[in-house]
Amino acid sequence: MEQTVIWKRLDDTGMEYCTHILGERTEIHGKVIRSLPEEASFVDYRVVCNQDGNTEQVIIQYIQQNKVQTMRLQKDANHRWLRDGIHLPELDGLVDIDIGATPSTNLLPIRRLRLNIGESQQMTAAWVRFPEFDVLPLQQIYTRMGEFEYEYRSLSGYKARLRTDAEGIIRDYEGEWAEVINSGH
What we know:
This is Glycolipid-binding domain-containing protein. Pfam families: Glycolipid_bind. This protein is mostly beta strands. About 5% of the residues lie in helices and about 60% in strands. It is built from 1 helix and 15 strands. The model has no long low-confidence stretch (mean pLDDT about 95).
């Protein structure tokens, strides 16, 4: 199944065009554009997961003003994360990617964890930060609040309500993103 979503930022000017391919493997392809008074930026990314929903490969291009950066993350057969071929031991064993510029990657733990209403699960994701454009481990907690509602918390104190569709694709990300168009609805 292929589903395309367009989200708009709620806290500044920005939009995302994102395609989710949900089947034997999961793929997410997105393009995020933001225009702030101090800078404009563009993020183009692709996430590929295996049949168990575990992230295998991530390619991100980040453009700020006239600076272009690319990041290639890949997991090897021993679940070791590599950035542009360089081992990142602090990420070893992590399953999910969390690209900070988009709500799309919240789909990955939501689908993989399959929480019942009222259940919570703590996990650590490989978090790509912007504008730093680095990747760090980030401890997170997902709690299923209702059939299509989750609470997302990071141990840094950040939290938000996430409203999804039946596939786990984010429709609304409290205070930050709202769905404009979803080809599945």
